[in-house]
Amino acid sequence: MFSEYTSTELVSIFAMQGFAGLILFSIFVLMALGLAIIFGQMGVINMAHGEFMILGAYVTYLTSLFFADYLSDIYGIYFFVAMILAFFVAGGFGAFVEWAMIQHLYRRPLDTLLATWGLSLIMQQIFRSVFGAREVGITIPEWMMGSIPLTEMVEIPINGIFLMCLTILIAISVYLLMFKSRYGGQVRAVVQNRPMAGAVGINTEKVDRVTFALGCGIAGVAGSAFTMIGSTSPTSGQLYIVDTFLVVVFGGAGSLLGTIASAFTISQAQSTMEFFLSGSMAKVLTLLTVVVILMLRPQGLFSLKIRK
Amino acid sequence: MKRKKIFQGLTRSCLNRRNLFKILGMSAFLWVSTAVIAADNVNTTGLAVTDDTVTVGILHSVTGTMAISETGSVQAEKLAIKQINAEGGVLGRQIKYIQEDGASDWPTFAEKAKKLLVSDKVASVFGCWTSASRKAVLPVFEQYNGMLYYPTFYEGLEQSPNVIYTGQEATQQIIAGIDWVVREKGAKKFYLLGSDYIWPRTSNKIARKHIEKLGLKVVGEEYYPLGHTQFNSVINKIKLKRPDVIYAIVVGGSNVAFYKQLKAAGINLTKEKPLLLTISVTEDEILGIGGENIVGAYAAMKYFQSLENANNKAFVSDFKKEYGEDIVIGDVTQAAYLGPWLWKAAVEKAGSFDIDKIRKASPDIELTTAPEGYVKIHPNHHLWSKTRVGLAQQDGQYKVVYETSQLMEPDPFPKGYQ
């Protein structure tokens, strides 16, 4: 199938395709990190994860409107403000949800599944009532929507680079938080042995609340970033949720490193296959591969070894 | 003694009451029978028609995924009904409507259609949007002999005695658009792209047949699952194959992702290298995509909000007066607006609300007041209409750059295209 192209064309296309795979990888990591933290550290399956992302997207939308009306001189930087706001709004709402709902349902995984699914429906309807059923158009600052032409064929999308940097930044922050900070130590202690962690004086309720809020906050940032590449409507969150769960489950619940490894595997497999096959077929094959691997290795790629 | 008095009092009041009921009952009976006689002439099948009102149904999704698209249709149908009522109604009867929510769920559509036809006995139904919802309600309409006015452009391959299709079927939309791009832009190589379900697949099949019939080349054909948000790989493939035209039938939320990523990958549509022709992006969708991300793309359909004619100017201003200055009107919204007017014309021509008589009267009904200009119902229940090509502008509107000189004949079962 390559005979009709020159070698320079092929090299540039493979470069472009490799880059497309990396962008997809960043997107998967960004989507899945928040869920992995909540699912892995607390055992809560948060079905409303997609809606927390869309909450972040709507915060971005409101920020862009505010900047367009009052601060149009510095419109170009509104996106950074929006992402910070999205983190705190989604995180704050997450903390509220944990307090009002999740904390009463610990150790009842099926009930949290249903309750968070209900929450996702409630959030969708609230979005619909407040912002309308139609998609909202978010104007992205002009400098973020262009591309850098390297050669005639190879063009690097700026928003792709932006997404990658953001993903690296967030992944490193989460790593430092989880493995280098006092809070991270507490979280890991609670995950490994909750009664013992409580006995040595860790406030496990507070740890849970902060963890849930952190996961939701990261979802908010992801949603905010995705306004560059996707749509914002009350039900857009549903577009992401399947891929997100796929990445987290495949990576092995409870392992952040696993999540990243799984995001890398799935994104590379998918973007390579998309290039050689048609879009729907690539998806089918990706899912099939994941199913087969999970049959052979039900705990996912990586898993925590805990004495039960 | 006291008790006896009370008893007597009670019997008396009972008697009085009984008389009262009798009188009331008799008058009610008289009133009802006169009403039945008057409505009888125009309604022999027991539809919800009284002396001064007629009830119709509106059946769209106002919740769920499809609410994004169907909201405009509901607004258009309500506006048409309001205007018809202001003009004196249909056969002297004011139109009342019962609105049901299909909730973006096809079995719910079927259930609500049955409710409208069987319990509410509505005189006709304006509704449905996706082909899936139409296919779900079709058996219900055929079993209980209802009439559905369906507004969306769709893939064709269907013709029901119980449906009037007010949007274009695929050949009307596709053939004129491709002919135009070949003639005016000298296009030779096409890349077909779509969401993975019946409408894009059937439409691309027709497009491919037509392109090959013209002796031109299809260099790629691809489908992505509904809701897909990553188009980087296909954009790379497009760059590699260098088509003259990207023929895109992507729908829903995927649309937004596709156009944003196309722009980010450095494909500037205004340069027309390649040129992009779509049949799935109306002004409604551009709201979500953002005018700056799609400026320069071409769309082939029958209606654009910017059409310059007196009918359309009045329609747009009425629509904005009703729903606010910022509202936009897409192709399907206009087609939905035609529904109640076509039904009114059919009822008046038949002199009756009976479904069978409306069906008989419908072919050759003309509407000279349509915002898109002039339409006529074909015996195959689709509309004769013109096809236009619009160029997307920064402000989210289309500029009309071409209009077929003749009305396009609807041909839901095109020979040699299946």
Task: Sum this structure up briefly.
Helices cover 73% and strands 2% of the residues of chain A.
Q: What keywords describe this structure?
A:
heterodimer, A: 308 residues, mainly alpha, two-stranded antiparallel sheet, 12 helices, globular, B: 418 residues, alpha/beta, Rossmann fold, 3 domains, seven-stranded mixed beta sheet, five-stranded parallel beta sheet, 46% helix, elongated
Description:
- The complex is a heterodimer of chains A (308) and B (418).
- Chain A is an all-alpha fold and 308 residues long.
- Chain A has one domain.
- Helices cover 73% and strands 2% of the residues of chain A.
- Chain A has twelve helices and two strands, in the order αααααββααααααα.
- Chain A has helices at 7-42, 49-70, 78-100, 109-131, 142-145, 158-179, 182-192, 194-199, 204-226, 237-251, 256-276, 279-296, and strands spanning 147-149, 155-157.
- In chain A, helix 1 (7-42) packs antiparallel against helix 9 (204-226).
- The N and C termini of chain A lie far apart (53 Å).
- Chain B has helices at 2-40, 67-86, 106-119, 131-143, 170-185, 198-213, 232-241, 253-264, 283-289, 291-294, 310-323, 331-350, 355-361; strands at 53-60, 94-101, 125-127, 148-150, 163-165, 189-195, 217-224, 245-249, 275-278, 298-301, 366-370, 373-377, 383-384, 388-392, 398-403.
- In chain B, helix 2 packs parallel to helix 12, helix 5 (170-185) packs across helix 6 and helix 8 packs across helix 9.
- Chain B has a seven-stranded mixed sheet with strand order 7-6-8-9-10-14-15, with helices on both faces. A five-stranded parallel sheet of chain B has the order 2-1-3-4-5, sandwiched between helices. In chain B, strands 11-12-13 form a three-stranded antiparallel sheet, covered by helices on one side.
- In chain B, a hairpin with a 5-residue loop joins strand 12 (373-377) and strand 13 (383-384).
- Chain B has three domains: 1-40; 53-168 and 308-384, Response regulator (Rossmann fold), CATH 3.40.50; 171-301 and 390-403, Rossmann fold (3-Layer(aba) Sandwich), CATH 3.40.50.2300.
- Chain B has 418 residues and is α/β, with parallel strands linked by helices.
- The radius of gyration of chain B is 26 Å and the shape is elongated.
- The interface between A and B is large, with 52 and 48 residues.
